[in-house]
Structure to design on (186 residues):
């Protein structure tokens, strides 16, 4: 019992000691992809994936159900005939409260997600990132370090958006792959 108590305290001590390091890592600004025409943050890629448009559409709907808790609240367009799914996704961002030594809610980011499906390929687009407020607040403003209202937390918020979008893209690509059916040979 005494060893368990010591081990638990040691692990807790290491976690507390790593918080400043974790905060510094999070504060590192990310290289967000900027669309040269609109000057907005935009994640876009054409992914070669074997399958008919109907099959890839079904895989996309399955992915939405896997990734989002309530995919019906995300969809704005679902068109199997046109191979198109549009929606509005949401994610929370957080800041580190130094006084309390804990993460606090900093707001919610909404973004546009679009999947366009063709024979043996699909294209995803993630754009129009806005902090949910009374009026639209494009998060591209957080990239301007010369802004008089600049807040060091903005770098952390951008980092959180980037890592969340990278996870989203990674899970989408994985779930859009064909399902491997294993035969039960015994």
């Amino acid at each position: 019992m005494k060893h368990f108590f010591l081990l638990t305290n040691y692990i807790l001590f290491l976690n507390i000691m790593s918080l400043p390091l974790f905060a510094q890592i999070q504060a590192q600004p990310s290289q967000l992809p900027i669309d040269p025409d609109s000057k907005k943050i935009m994640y876009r890629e054409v992914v070669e994936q074997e399958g008919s448009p109907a099959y890839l559409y079904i895989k996309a709907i399955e992915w939405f159900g896997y990734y989002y808790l309530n995919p019906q609240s995300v969809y704005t367009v679902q068109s199997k005939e046109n191979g198109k799914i549009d929606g509005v996704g949401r994610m929370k961002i957080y800041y580190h409260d130094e006084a309390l030594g804990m993460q606090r809610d900093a707001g919610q980011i909404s973004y546009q997600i679009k999947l366009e499906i063709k024979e043996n390929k699909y294209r995803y687009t993630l754009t129009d990132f806005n902090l949910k407020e009374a009026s639209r607040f494009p998060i591209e403003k957080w990239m301007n370090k010369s802004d008089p209202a600049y807040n060091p937390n903005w770098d952390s918020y951008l980092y959180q958006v980037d890592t969340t979008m990278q996870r989203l893209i990674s899970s989408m690509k994985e779930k859009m792959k064909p399902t491997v059916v294993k035969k039960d040979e015994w």
About this structure: Confidence is low (pLDDT under 50) at residues 1-14, 17-28. Helices lie at 2-26, 53-67, 153-176. The chain has three helices and six strands. The first strand starts at residue 43 and ends at 48.
